[in-house]
Structure formats: C-alpha cells, structure tokens
Specification:
Helix content is 63%, strand content 0%. The chain is mainly alpha-helical. The protein folds into two domains: 138 residues, no CATH class; 81 residues, Lysozyme. The N terminus is likely disordered.
C-alpha cells in the first residue's frame, strides 16, 4: 500500500489543530483532581455520604437513606453521579447545621463557597469555620491542630470537612449547655443589647460584645469565659448575658448600663 503524498503545511496545521482539540476535550471530560479508579470513586462517595449524615445528626435532621448500591457498582459515570449527589446533600446538611449554630448561639458564620468552588477556597472555609467553632467548644485550638494538612489538596479538604462536622456537633451538644436565666432578666438584657452593640463588637473603645463590657467587668463577672474564649466579643451571647446576670445579682442591678437600661424602662 502506497502512502499518500506529503501533506502541505496548511493541511498539517489543520490536522494538528484537530488532534490538539481532541486532546483538550478528552482532558475536560475528566474533572481535575477527581479520582479515576473505581475504588477511589467509591471512597469519595462514602466520604460525602458520611459527611451528610454527620451534619444531619448535628442538626437533629432526618437521615438521608442510602441503599449503598455505589459500593457494588463499577460504572464510572454512575459513581461520579453518586458523588455529585452526596456532595450536594452534604452541602445542604452543613448549611442547615451551621444555621442552627447561628440561631442558638448567636455565632456569625460566613457564607459558604459553592459545591464547585476552587479547592483552596473550600479548604479555607472548612478550616476557618471548624477553628471558629472549636474556640467556642472545647475552647482551645493548638497550633498543630490548626495547621494540619493531608497528602493532597483533596485529602486536606476531606480532613477539614470531617473536622467541621465534628466541631458543629460538639458545639451544638456542649457549647449550648448554659445556665438557666429567668425570663425577666433574659428579656431585660436583650433589650439593653439592642442599644449597646453587636454580640461580636470590638471597635477599639475598650468595650466588648453585645453588652459593651470593659476588661474589669469581664474579669469580675465572666472570668471563666475569659479563660475559655478571651474578650467578650468572642463569647456566645448566652455567656455575655450570664455575666451580666451575675453583676445584677451581686447588687449592681442594671446600673452598669445607665442610659440603655433607662431606655428599656429598667431604672
């Protein structure tokens, strides 16, 4: 069989264009950073299923059922679809659990990145929120814990996603364990708070938190909270109110807040 005559330069360029385009399309068909073996795909599906259940448990939400069919499948497309499905479920469950943290502890949680955001952004978010919650309960974060990373970017993401789920569950189970406060005092200090500042206020004026406590007040009536969380702008709202209640019961009443207490009809 005779070979065709040599291609012209234009023809060669056209052929090269088709080859490169085909190669680019092939590369785009596999998501960057995604595992390609069946075993790795199954493991990733397991990770996001487990993550979903952890956040649902923390939020006291019904558990999404699973038939575990992906553990028996060798179909790459089906396994990728399963991963995508559980990723969306895990994201929704995380948002639900963190909304519960915000509502119950008055802790401001930053808006989450999208499911398909850059890997570095998803790692940064999971790490930042996990550390924020760890500082609420158990109250301490070691340098080693905060700097942890795994062998790859994907493994580091999974590490911090699991830590975020654990921190969310711990904060909701233990960080909310707070002393009982009579309804009258609860309402009174919530009214004062409305005229004082945000729960996380730290404007540099020497007063902190939603009831604008100075350093002396915090040390006297919230020393345990200072040891645990630092200045009052880092305390959950219930702890700030509880310190104020301690001051009230010590005989000081509402006088540490003369103007705002007067507005609330308390003096």
């Amino acid at each position: 069989m005779r070979l065709p005559l040599p291609l012209s330069l234009a023809g060669l360029a056209l052929l090269l264009t088709f080859v490169l385009a085909g190669s680019a399309n092939a590369r785009r068909s596999v998501r960057p950073g995604q595992p390609v073996s069946v075993q790795a795909l199954r493991a990733l599906a397991d990770h996001y299923r487990s993550l979903t259940w952890s956040f649902e448990r923390a939020a006291h939400a019904p558990r999404t059922p699973s038939s575990y069919t992906y553990r028996r499948s060798t179909d790459g497309d089906y396994l990728q679809w399963t991963i995508d499905t559980w990723m969306r479920r895990a994201s929704a469950a995380r948002n639900q659990a963190l909304a519960r943290v915000e509502h119950r502890l008055s802790v401001r949680i930053p808006a989450p990145p999208g499911v398909r955001s850059r890997l570095s952004r998803r790692v940064s978010y999971s790490r930042a929120v996990a550390l924020k919650l760890r500082r609420i309960y158990p109250g301490k974060v070691t340098r080693r814990f905060a700097s942890a990373h795994a062998g790859s970017g994907g493994e580091t993401l999974q590490l911090w996603q699991r830590r975020l789920a654990t921190a969310t569950a711990q904060v909701l189970a233990h960080g909310y364990a707070r002393p009982a406060i009579p309804a009258f005092l609860q309402g009174a200090f919530l009214c004062i708070h409305r005229y004082e500042g945000a729960w996380d206020a730290n404007t540099g004026n020497g007063y902190y938190g939603g009831l604008q406590m100075d350093a002396g007040f915090q040390s006297r009536y919230g020393a345990d909270y200072v040891r645990r969380w630092g200045t009052a702008d880092n305390w959950p709202s219930w702890a700030q109110v509880h310190a104020a209640v301690r001051a009230y019961r010590s005989g000081r009443g509402f006088y540490p807040w003369p103007n705002t207490a007067r507005v609330c009809g308390l003096i």
